[in-house]
């Protein structure tokens, strides 16, 4: 079943993700209270990616986030050239490695779904872990993508 961004946000709100977050000065601000939360105090619980029905530029990603103090809310960002790199960095920073890996693999697979056919890698990228992530993401896409190893 394909759900819309609004449906996902409504469902998350029904399950207690009622606050909204915005990236401010390297932290996430709770929009209802103004409280600043540090990335290390946050856990990504769910991630949803959406594409526009008629416009491929109309894409978004919704993060369902919970703080260690129990604040639950969502952060919405573009999922294309208009994405805010600071938002993604703040959301992922301080997360468990498995969460970061899941988000990275989903991002690579989303790029593949959009038609990316070349991925450049190098051992210097994230101490070689980027190559492992690409390999994990490509398990179902071998033959569709050219990998350009760097040095």
Overall shape: globular
Oligomer: single chain
Distance between the first and last residues' Cα: 43 Å
Strand-pairing-aware structural class: alpha/beta
Residue windows where pLDDT falls under 50 for at least 5 positions = none
Strand order of the largest sheet: 3-2-1-6-5-4
Helix content: 25-40%
Major sheet: 6 strands, mixed
Number of helices: 4
The total domain count is 2
- The topology string of helices and strands comes to HEEEEEEHHEHE
* Count of DSSP strands: 8
Strand content: 25-35%
SSE arrangement:
Layout: H1 5-14, E1 19-24, E2 27-30, E3 36-37, E4 42-51, E5 59-67, E6 72-78, H2 85-92, H3 97-113, E7 118-121, H4 129-137, E8 146-149
Helix pairs in contact: 3-4
Structural features, described:
It contains four helices and eight strands. The protein has 151 residues and is an alpha/beta fold. It has two domains: 1-94, no CATH class; 96-151, no CATH class. The strands form two sheets. The protein has a six-stranded mixed beta sheet, sandwiched between helices. A hairpin with a 4-residue loop joins β5 (59-67) and β6 (72-78). α3 packs across α4. The radius of gyration is 16 Å and the shape is globular. The mean pLDDT is 75.
């Amino acid at each position: 079943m394909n759900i819309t961004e609004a449906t996902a946000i409504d469902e998350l709100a029904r399950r207690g993700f009622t606050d909204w977050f915005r990236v401010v000065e390297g932290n996430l601000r709770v929009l209802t209270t103004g409280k600043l939360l540090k990335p290390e105090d946050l856990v990504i619980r769910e991630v949803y990616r959406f594409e526009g029905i008629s416009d491929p530029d109309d894409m978004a990603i919704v993060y369902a986030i919970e703080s260690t103090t129990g604040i639950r809310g969502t952060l919405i960002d573009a999922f294309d050239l208009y994405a805010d790199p600071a938002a993604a960095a703040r959301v992922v920073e301080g997360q468990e490695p498995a969460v970061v890996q899941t988000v990275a693999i989903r991002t690579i697979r989303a790029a593949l779904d959009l038609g990316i056919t070349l991925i450049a890698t190098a051992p210097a990228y994230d101490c070689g872990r980027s190559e492992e992530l690409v390999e994990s993401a490509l398990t179902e896409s071998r033959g569709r993508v050219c990998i350009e190893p760097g040095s």
